[in-house]
Amino acid sequence: xxxxxxxxxxxxxxxxxxxxxxxxxxxxxxxxxxxxxxxxxxxxxxxxxxxxxxxxxxxxxxxxxxxxxxxxxxxxxxxxxxxxxxxxxxxxxxxxxxxxxxxxxxxxxxxxxxxxxxxxxxxxxxxxxxxxxxxxxxxxxxxxxxxxxxxxxxxxxxxxxxxxxxxxxxxxxxxxxxxxxxxxxxxxxxxxxxxxxxxxxxxxxxxxxxxxxxxxxxxxxxxxxxxxxxxxxxxxxxxxxxxxxxxxxxxxxxxxxxxxxxxxxxxxxxxxxxxxxxxxxxxxxxxxxxxxxxxxxxxxxxxxxxxxxxxxxxxxxxxxxxx
Length: 323
Description:
This protein is mainly α and 323 residues long. The chain contains 12 helices and no strands. The protein has one domain.
């Protein structure tokens, strides 16, 4: 019997086979791609941490070094150092200050850490301004401490992206040194530190106001359609930088003045710090922008929810102090 020639596959059969091959390739490529991204991310975080639990902050060591009943000058020195702690940790990190790195440097492309550092210097400027004009003088008409005045008006106000003549790092370090001179002055009786109950309330109102936390919150709650995909992670990590500074400062304040939590605000303070911890340890493998009822995560929205909850708790704390 004569053999029949093979039947040529139809066009629809060829398309079906091609589709199956593409689907199989995708099933293989996606796990491989995610695996590579995960390994690269883990390798990088081993070199340069991207999550910052409170337990790793040097503020804990500052507070542990205090005596059981610290004096007001000791409290002032600790609080001032907590205020600039995160900036100093960024400058001392393995990759240093990345915002001003040249285009040819690989670190220039690490935009997550660069935006975190932009948030750090913003919050440092804001807290230094309040500290110098409210806590480092006896009354509103008193002269401002000359070291803090120079730190806030000249050194910390310097642009964050200058590479040379002078570099941002050198100016920021000079600002930190000026804060240290202020703390040494407290020890020698040459500096002033004065905190009243209304100062604590005014501090919280200042933090919650349009000049401070409203700035990163506005970046997080802007309509998704108005935010380019490439800016999503920038806004998330900028917010993280702001809260890193704020967490160190408020944590020190709450430890130095436990009455803040005892006036009916203890639970609010506890939850506020929990939300800060979530923000400071937020580091998704890939930042997603789930829209409306999308199955994908909306990471910017999640960060906004943490920040809003934190603000509400701090506002409740402020009201309990005011009563």
